[in-house]
Design a protein that fits this description.
zinc-finger, 250 residues, Non-ribosomal Peptide Synthetase Peptidyl Carrier Protein, Chain A, metal-binding, 66% helix
């Protein structure tokens, strides 16, 4: 009765290549794979950045275990990983949809890969600086630079509190604006506003009519509108009454 074959895990380039290679060799020996079979299983186990290595190899090299593992060693080996991780840290910026927690986790991962031999205190200081440099929001970044944070964990906690305060402030402002544009709920106030609006419309209408008709003529004698003094009937009547009747022949 044959023994059940062991399965290999996948490799995406984000963990130690040396550790994965050791585990792969143990599984390959237990299953009795030859060199070509090992190459096929190794190629099939690659994911993400590690799988991109296959595009740089010829068909023959993909089936050659030494050539394939050598290419992975060159790309994900300890020496290369240090240099590559340091380059990633220097250019690491928070993505538009990335949370502060995700940024901190990735910075910590890259720091361990870039500075595996550094003392913990030194690595923590470097991680803190790279995290602050990578924060997308300029207000949060400025606050972190001014705050007395000692390590990545405390910086993350401070940044999350600051971000929550920002969101609460924006929400309050939005609520105030929404309340300002709502109709008044008090019927007395609503009635007063309606009356003021109606009065305003009447005044505007009166002004418009007055402008359309031109300036109104006023009589200096009687004070009436629509005629001048010389055409004033009241004045003419007064003058007629004031003049004595003349007899014919006198």
């Amino acid at each position: 009765m044959s023994r059940p074959s062991l399965k290999v895990s996948t490799y995406d380039g984000k963990t130690s290549w040396q550790v994965y290679k050791t585990q792969f060799s143990i599984v390959a020996d237990a299953n009795g794979w030859d060199e070509e079979t090992k190459a096929c299983h190794l190629a099939a186990s690659l994911r993400a950045d590690a799988a991109d290595i296959l595009q740089s190899l010829s068909e023959h090299q993909r089936r050659d275990f030494e050539a394939l593992s050598g290419a992975l060693e060159l790309r994900f080996g300890e020496k290369c990983v240090k240099e590559y991780s340091r380059l990633q840290l220097k250019s690491r910026q928070q993505k538009p949809t990335e949370t502060l927690q995700e940024l901190a986790t990735d910075v910590e991962r890259l720091s361990h890969m870039a500075f595996p031999d550094c003392p913990t205190e030194v690595r923590e200081t470097l991680s803190l600086q790279y995290f602050i440099d990578g924060v997308r929001d300029p207000e949060i970044q400025k606050a972190l630079r001014m705050a007395d944070v000692k390590d990545l964990k405390s910086a993350l906690g401070y940044a999350m509190k600051f971000e929550a305060a920002q969101q609460a402030t924006r929400k309050d402002r939005h609520t105030i604006r929404a309340v300002n544009v709502q109709e008044p709920s008090d019927p007395v106030i609503a009635s007063l506003i309606e009356r003021v609006d109606d009065l305003s419309r009447k005044v505007n209408s009166w002004r418009q009519n007055k402008t359309d008709k031109g300036p109104m003529v006023r009589c200096w004698s009687c004070g009436g509108e629509g005629h001048v003094r010389r055409n004033c009937r009241m004045r003419q009547d007064d003058e007629t009454r004031a003049t004595p009747n003349q007899q014919p022949g006198n």
